[in-house]
């Protein structure tokens, strides 16, 4: 099986190891662990199969909702897309990609599949499930939102230059791909924010109205120490709030994630990013740093 994706983000196993320290009680038993994929989702460190306990509609629905908001029908290049892969605009965009992969010696099969889609109206999702040798076949060939530097060069160049909704063939070292770009959006981000900067922002009433403040610590921790305005999303209750979090919250708004020291919040923020949240802030040092540097009335523990 071909390995298509690479990532510079920390792996979930690394995060779990770090967070198992006495300084940060990560609820690793509650967040799903990833299983190896031959062609994983670009939303590292967590993949589609990491959440195989959820119904399929929960795993791909956030992508489809974003697709419905942004998609443009017809073979038209989207506004702001540049043909220069090195340009700033090119780097600041993400694309929603679906693909199918066949072995290098099966080009004729790929051509037949392309004809079935273009002439007979067969759904690429069904053909991917039947013929693709990529593990993404389990979700209809959906690779999710990708940015530059996340795929092999040939695939990246073809995908980022492809007009929306047009089938494109490309050969890589893994075989022949048939891909289509379903939508594009401004690139999402996940950044650290210092507790002092957070405190300054929270003095602005408009910030409190527009920002989404999430605390992923456990209820007993929140009872010991808390920051006003943060809503509780305990990792031990992940299975309860995860399926509807993209509906309960607005994935396009600034979302700030808090824990004790910043490790659990980083893992949760990475997962939210994989679900279509585009503006994420991990609070560095967590509530412990907030107590030490901003408000010593908040107990440390």
From TrEMBL:
InterPro entries: PPIase_dom_sf, PPIase_PpiC, PpiC/parvulin_rotamase, Rhodanese-like_dom, Rhodanese-like_dom_sf. Residues 92-183 form the PpiC domain. Transmembrane segments: none annotated. PROSITE patterns: PPIC_PPIASE_2, RHODANESE_3. Residues 1-29 form the signal peptide. Residues 207-299 form the Rhodanese domain. Keywords: Isomerase, Rotamase, Signal. It holds the Pfam family Rotamase_3. GO terms for molecular function: peptidyl-prolyl cis-trans isomerase activity. SUPFAM superfamilies: FKBP-like, Rhodanese/Cell cycle control phosphatase. This is Peptidylprolyl isomerase.
